[in-house]
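Aim 2, interim progress: modelling of the iron/sulfur cluster-bound target.
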Amino acid sequence: MVTPARLPVIVRFLDQEYFRPRFAPRYPPAEEMVFTILAQNTTDINAGRALAALHEKYPGWEDVARAPVEDIAGAISMSGISGPKSRYIKGSLSALLEEHGDLEMKFLEGMDDREALDYLTELPGVGVKTASCVLLFALGRPVMPVDTHVFRVCKRLDFLPEEATREEAHWIMNAIVPDEDKYSFHINLVLHGRKVCKAVRPRCGECVIEGLCPGAIIEY
Ligand code: SF4
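Predicted structure of the complex, ligand included:
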């Protein structure tokens, strides 16, 4: 798949607008996986609160893996849909523990990005986005998650077909975004989606990439 000529220019404009972030691990891999599961269908603030509640209740992630699902659900209630999330958290952590004896995920070092993605998406509750977050945010590997903001903004920018699913969007974006831009582009697209290219009434008149955006809404 060919990188559209506009894409590197847009990356640069967003870097100038929001700053080009240098990679720094957000959490260790298992914690990143738990955080991303907690963040499903809620805000990062609520997910952060639920993560803090797990830290308070359990000494380590191995203890969470061994805890009853109902107890985990009680601790993370502020993140919403705590029933499924607690099953996914316990299921994914205990599968890793059983298979590898610890939760450090060092085994990922012996896998290429595609193998690592395939392995992680076999874990309970871990989809392509969660697996991508583990690889990008914990390990700095060039795998770009497509979350709700990236998905919406990239459709408006015409990098994705209107009918593309989230999973299709993942493969398209990872094919067209150069590896060295995946970290900064993801972070800046999320910022841009929150601040300017909002789901309802995008602020195209204030947008630094308006001139490069086929989806721009011109208001007179
Ligand atoms: S011009 Fe409008 S639609 Fe396009 S990226 Fe900017 S805010 Fe979004």
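The chain has a mean pLDDT of 97. The pocket of iron/sulfur cluster is lined by residues 153, 156-157, 196-197, 202-204, 207, 209-210, 213, 215-216 (CB under 6 Å).
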